[in-house]
């Protein structure tokens, strides 16, 4: 059916994700209201703030500086720390969710997204304060 979807005898095989289209529309409206340059600046600023905070905690970034994405940050979990327990603590005690490593990085890193609303200085401060208490 999927192959026929693109052929001359097109067969409909799925339901469009209407709610995701509305979410995309609203996200674009929000971005354009703030202004693209302001959005890019905010993401770079909060990324730099997060990296400084990791440095103060003695944590090392996975990706070297010239190759980092401000929106997706990966940091090594310190030796002797149960990274999954830290994530559980953040979620249960502070209502903050971060990702763990995938594949060969499972149990070794954390993935922290700074996208859209989460790319705000108050959110970075709250996350770093919570991380200090959980580690």
Write out key terms for the chains shown.
single chain, 135 residues, mainly alpha, Aspartate Aminotransferase, domain 1, three-stranded antiparallel sheet, 5 helices, 3 strands, 9% strand
Structure description:
This protein has 5 helices and 3 strands. By secondary structure, the protein is mainly alpha-helical. A hairpin with an 8-residue loop joins β2 (99-100) and β3 (109-113). A 3-stranded antiparallel beta sheet has the order 1-3-2, covered by helices on one side. The N and C termini lie far apart (50 Å). The chain is globular and about 60 Å long. The chain has helices at residues 2-5, 18-34, 36-56, 83-94, 121-134, and strands at residues 72-76, 99-100, 109-113. It has a single domain (35-134), classed as Aspartate Aminotransferase, domain 1 (Alpha-Beta Complex). The mean pLDDT is 93.
Concise overview:
The chain has 135 residues and is mainly alpha-helical.
Write the layout of secondary structure elements.
Blueprint: H1 2-5, H2 18-34, H3 36-56, E1 72-76, H4 83-94, E2 99-100, E3 109-113, H5 121-134
Antiparallel strand pairs: 1-3, 2-3
Helix pairs in contact: 3-5, 4-5
């Amino acid at each position: 059916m999927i192959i026929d979807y693109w052929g001359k005898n097109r067969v409909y095989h799925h339901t469009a994700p209407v709610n995701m289209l509305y979410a995309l529309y609203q996200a674009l409206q929000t971005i354009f209201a703030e202004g693209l340059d302001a959005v890019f600046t905010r993401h770079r600023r909060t990324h730099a703030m997060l990296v400084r905070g990791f440095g103060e905690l003695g944590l090392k970034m996975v990706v070297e500086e010239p190759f980092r994405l401000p929106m997706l940050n990966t940091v090594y979990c310190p030796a002797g720390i149960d990274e999954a327990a830290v994530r559980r603590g953040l979620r249960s005690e502070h209502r903050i969710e971060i990702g763990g490593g995938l594949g060969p990085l499972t149990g070794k890193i954390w993935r922290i997204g700074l996208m859209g609303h989460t790319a705000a200085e108050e959110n970075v401060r709250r996350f770093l304060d919570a991380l200090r208490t959980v580690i």
